[in-house]
Amino acid sequence: MNTVMPYTRALVLDDLPSSRDWLAQALQRAFPGIAVDSAGTLAEAFARIDPPPPLALIDLGLPDGSGVQLIERLRAAGDTLCIVATVFDDDAHLFPALRAGAQGYVLKDQSPQALADMLLGIAAGQPPLSPSIARRLLRHFQPIPAPADEPHLTPRETDVLRLTAKGMTLAEVSDALGLSRHTVSGYLKDVYRKLSVSSRAEATLEATRRGLVNPAG
């Protein structure tokens, strides 16, 4: 049976008193008897991390900076479990926080009990993540489908464009593919039309941008 790590002390960093109370309530529900220290600014938080707390709930938007700075400081100093608690659910806030060392990311759109349940999941190795944040992370690592209007090149057109992108002349492409120069020229014209370009250089750049060919391949 899993047991929750006995966190006895935590730091809450949030500039809004109501949010600090909400986070402290969640911590008390998850870890009864935990001592909760609170700060409304980065400066106050920095003054309260000697020694570093075992657990910290950290907002990102603060009057004197970003909570990411506290995450970096805590992760460099020891083993503090840093969990972001914020209203920001965009990539511009999520990924810098994770890169800094945050081990959880929860949104302020739930009850203290819901957050407490997430914190209790730590014992089972479940990172505290709001459902929408977990979905965003999954989408981030999924391949991006090509737009519906992405021009389609036939396998032979792709071969011609790939060799052209390597700097091969029309004659060299013809020899490599066993085709006549006239046929290769026709394929290139079709490629120009599909990619809306007017030169082999432009075709190579456009194809590379769209991921159709790799000039270094």
From TrEMBL:
SUPFAM superfamilies the record matches: C-terminal effector domain of the bipartite response regulators (SSF46894), CheY-like (SSF52172)
One Pfam family, short name: Response_reg
Residue ranges annotated for the Response regulatory domain, each copy included: 9-123
Residue intervals of the HTH luxR-type domain: 146-211
InterPro entries tied to this protein: CheY-like_superfamily, NreC/VraR/RcsB-like_REC, Sig_transdc_resp-reg_C-effctor, Sig_transdc_resp-reg_receiver, Tscrpt_reg_LuxR_C, WalR-like, WH-like_DNA-bd_sf
Modified residues (4-aspartylphosphate): D59
Domain of life of the native organism: Bacteria
UniProt-recorded Gene Ontology molecular function terms: DNA binding
Gene Ontology biological process terms in this record: phosphorelay signal transduction system; regulation of DNA-templated transcription
Record keywords: DNA-binding, Phosphoprotein, Transcription, Transcription regulation
Name of the protein this chain belongs to: DNA-binding NarL/FixJ family response regulator
